[in-house]
């Protein structure tokens, strides 16, 4: 039988850690019930060296975890604890994450590749804030009292926790996406079966350990690392899961929704991909617009659902802006996550690396001009340097990596048309110092999030989600609470007498 922990060395920090590698069910790390020797092998994307292996959960393991979550919902969580108690535990979990911030960031960097300082200060710092934000909501989930007939009747609503939630998170922000899913679900009183990405499960397992340490009752949060085609599919189709939340590709999102429909019509929220546009108008502060455009496509090495991968620049400033953009992009260091100079790390896996290079080569063969990058690095690691294409057209395939496609427009109407010419609608950005233009264009852009004179920054108290094929439902803000509650209307008769028969 496979061991349920592994010792890993963080050389840059001169630290040795023991990481849990089993399945987390009922606050304990356990082997798989029926396939204890099935393992997921993890690789450091910066060096291509093996990190360790974790237990691969099976369909039976998902069943056991769902049963644990259901029992907890009915006995020790759900409507059996007050919002104040839920708040206290969420804040305790945030305290523990804060205590372990450096260690979590080191493992995130090792497993995902992103720079340690960015994992620590942004991903984990933001996740701690997310937990605290929803801790503040836990005792403030209220319904309405509705006038029906003041003399004889009233109605009121209750926002009940929806139940057992299957949560499927991606590899690009392993801790952030965990917090976005877990915090509102726990604040509302739901229980959870979490399926982290098979590429990056380590921090989800470490956070599971903190769930137990914080004092959450057994079964409230369960973690089953597994292949998406096994664990993700089983959660989506499970007859005793009340809601499934998924972040990932539109292709997989369709499968999740189909499985939910074919099983028990469970509630579904989907945060899916995008081909997000940024527009730079001639009145913009070009220096700042170039900085934000670089952040939009190069942050997290372009592995971002809202990555501003399509940039359209007004023709009057196009040449000047492209030159500025290229010089800015050259300044970013893509390197090992433990190197202080690195502002970006490798892509997460060989599969992603090969896919991005296929798209870069495809862009070149389709006639796009390479203004920066487009050359493979020698040596180990899944590194892709910032790449900028110009002379693009709408039919070119350039995607999910530090790869930017730059086009031009003449008029505001043309810019809006180019931006909206996509089946996606997750994010969009515009840069202009004309206030009326900012209002007109932000109103016309078809996206769940529009940034004006900035890009890619999110706040825990502001809703996030997509339009069109970029998803259903919202995360963050008070809006996320709607995804984890069901509204019950109670009609109360205190005075009407019914005559019978009719």
From TrEMBL:
Protein name: Aldehyde dehydrogenase domain-containing protein
Signal peptide: none
Coiled coil: none
Domain Aldehyde dehydrogenase: 37-490
InterPro entries: Ald_DH/histidinol_DH, Ald_DH_C, Ald_DH_CS_CYS, Ald_DH_CS_GLU, Ald_DH_N, Aldehyde_DH_dom
A Pfam family of this chain: Aldedh
Family recorded in the similarity comment: Belongs to the aldehyde dehydrogenase family.
Record flagged with keyword Oxidoreductase: yes
Record: active site: 271
GO MF terms held by the record: aldehyde dehydrogenase [NAD(P)+] activity
Keywords annotated in UniProt: Oxidoreductase
Gene3D superfamilies: Aldehyde Dehydrogenase, Chain A, domain 1, Aldehyde Dehydrogenase, Chain A, domain 2
């Amino acid at each position: 039988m496979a061991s349920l922990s592994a010792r890993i060395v963080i050389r840059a920090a001169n630290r040795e850690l023991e990481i849990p590698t089993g399945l987390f069910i009922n606050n304990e790390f356990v082997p798989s019930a029926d396939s204890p020797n099935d393992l997921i092998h993890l690789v450091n994307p910066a060096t291509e060296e093996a990190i360790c292996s974790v237990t691969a959960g099976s369909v039976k393991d998902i069943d056991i975890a769902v049963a644990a979550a259901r029992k907890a919902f009915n006995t020790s969580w759900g409507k059996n604890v007050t919002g104040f108690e839920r708040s206290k535990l969420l804040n305790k979990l945030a305290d523990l994450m804060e205590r372990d911030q450096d260690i979590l960031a080191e493992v995130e960097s090792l497993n995902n590749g992103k720079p340690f300082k960015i994992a620590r200060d942004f991903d984990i710092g933001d996740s701690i804030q997310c937990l605290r934000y929803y801790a503040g909501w836990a005792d403030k989930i209220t319904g309405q009292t509705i006038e029906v007939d003041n003399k004889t009747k009233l109605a009121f609503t209750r926002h009940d926790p929806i139940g057992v939630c299957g949560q499927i998170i991606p590899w690009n922000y392993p801790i952030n996406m965990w917090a976005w899913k877990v915090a509102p679900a726990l604040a509302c009183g739901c229980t959870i079966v979490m399926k982290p990405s098979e590429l990056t499960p380590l921090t989800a397992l470490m956070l599971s350990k903190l769930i137990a340490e914080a004092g959450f009752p057994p079964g409230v949060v369960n973690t089953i690392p597994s292949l998406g085609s096994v664990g993700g599919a089983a959660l989506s189709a499970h007859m005793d899961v009340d809601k499934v939340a998924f972040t990932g590709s539109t292709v997989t999102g369709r499968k999740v929704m189909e499985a939910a429909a074919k099983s028990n019509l469970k509630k579904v929220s989907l945060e899916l991909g995008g081909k997000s546009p940024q527009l730079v108008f001639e009145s913009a502060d070009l220096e700042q617009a170039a900085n934000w455009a670089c952040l939009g496509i190069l942050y997290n090495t372009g592995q971002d659902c809202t990555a501003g991968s399509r940039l359209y620049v007004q023709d009057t400033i196009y040449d000047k802006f492209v030159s500025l953009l290229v010089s800015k992009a050259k300044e970013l260091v893509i390197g090992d996550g433990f190197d202080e100079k690195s502002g970006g790390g490798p892509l997460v896996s060989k599969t992603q690396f090969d896919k991005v290079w296929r798209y870069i080569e495809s862009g070149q063969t389709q006639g796009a001009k390479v203004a920066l990058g487009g050359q493979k690095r020698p040596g180990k690691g899944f590194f892709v340097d910032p790449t900028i294409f110009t002379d693009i057209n709408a039919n070119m395939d350039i995607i999910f990596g530090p790869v930017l496609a730059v086009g031009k427009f003449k008029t505001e109407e043309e810019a809006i048309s180019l931006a909206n010419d996509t089946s996606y609608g997750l994010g969009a950005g515009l840069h202009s110092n004309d206030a009326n233009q900012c209002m007109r264009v932000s109103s016309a852009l078809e996206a769940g999030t529009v940034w004006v004179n900035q890009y890619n920054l999110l706040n825990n108290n502001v809703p996030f989600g997509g339009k069109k094929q970029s998803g259903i439902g919202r995360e963050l803000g008070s809006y996320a609470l709607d995804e984890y509650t069901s509204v019950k209307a109670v009609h109360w008769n205190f005075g009407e007498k019914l005559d019978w028969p009719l």
